[in-house]
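Retro notes, structure queue

What went well: the backlog is down to a handful. What didn't: a couple of records were mislabeled last round, so from now on we paste the full input next to the output in the thread. Example, using U32 family peptidase from Sulfurimonas lithotrophica:
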Amino acid sequence: MNKVELLSPAGTLEKLKIALDYGADAVYGGVSHFSLRIRSGKEFTMEDFAEGIKYAHERGKKVYATINGFPFNSQLKLLKKHILAMAELKPDAFIVATPGVLKLCHDLVPDIPLHLSTQANVMNVLDAQVYAAMGATRIITAREISLKDLKEIKKELPELELEVFVHGSMCFAYSGRCLISTLQSGRVPNRGSCANDCRFPYEMYAANPETGTLFKLEEDEGVGTYIMNSKDLNLASHIKEILDSGVVDSLKIEGRTKTAYYAATTAKAYRMAIDDYYEDKLDTDKYQYELESLQNRGYTDAYLISRPFEKHDTQSLDFTMQLGTHQVSGQVDENGTHFLCKYKTLPGDELEVHMPLGSKIEMVDNEIGTTYERDGRVYLKFKQLKAQNGKIWESVHSGNVNPIELPVKMPQYTFLRVPSHPDMGTYPKQ
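Corresponding output:
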């Protein structure tokens, strides 16, 4: 039986490696402004992206290159050069968003599979047939699509791969086709520079043009002013329904501009869910424990399982972002011998060790600290905070760039985390 693919975001080379180490079967990312996330694309050089592809292929995994921006006429010559240059790196597919770019890629590099971006808004059999005829081997369906409609597409086009989003930020606009930040700040969302204007609080006013009267409309307490702020997608509790359908080939996680911890945690949670599904031992509490540790805007299961008009809980109206249940206190280096502090750490603090799935470390008790297990999780307590240069610190904070020695070697990119402080609350409401 072929397992469904787990596809994770890769905003940087480090995040690419982390996502693969934590369980992703494939990652997606891009280089330059032809990628729909130029803020993350700028962090990838061609050399880095080539190294990432090599890293993935050595592990039997895949990399999909995003060329899913919406180009202007003045950029078409540069786009052709970019397509050819990216093809030389041997990615496993290109992700494109427009019919013109799809055709151009098919003409220039016919041997590279082409995946159609969710921004093409495929919702039905007719559109899927058109894009398949143009050379698309996979459709990343619109986020508003239902499982029922996915089944209809697969029935008519059984060879066409279908990919769906299962986790990440949701856009209040239809499949991300938004122009609000273009209007307000000149940053064009469909060309990779969305300013997330929908996340801002807005005040409503009423005006009388005849008298020049203007007055503010007061909000009811608890209703909020984040009127376009969508909750984050979380379908970890619906893996059974999705995979039971038999029509989904790839589960996609959004988030190339998010943190390394996000890349790790989402990959680990959905890796567990997928593997448990095939072993008939699903435990949604286990996956949600991980996902609730992430900063989020509140979670929703959105539209894949329920139709859009049936959902009334998809907006976060009174805040833009809230803390998760845990705070990252440190990230282990590639050697596995030291960690860099991400949050205040003191000797005696109990830190949960967040490792790639299946990883194990030795339980030790030495002059640096102790490691131990409790309730199926691994924990660490430092006795002393010894820097790589030999200095002993009474405490370390996020601004401290000195690598701190670990009591035992850990897998690269392991994270140390603590429960979020109850007084930290949610992020400022701006």
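Agreed that this is the format going forward. Reviewer comment attached to the example: The mean pLDDT is 88.
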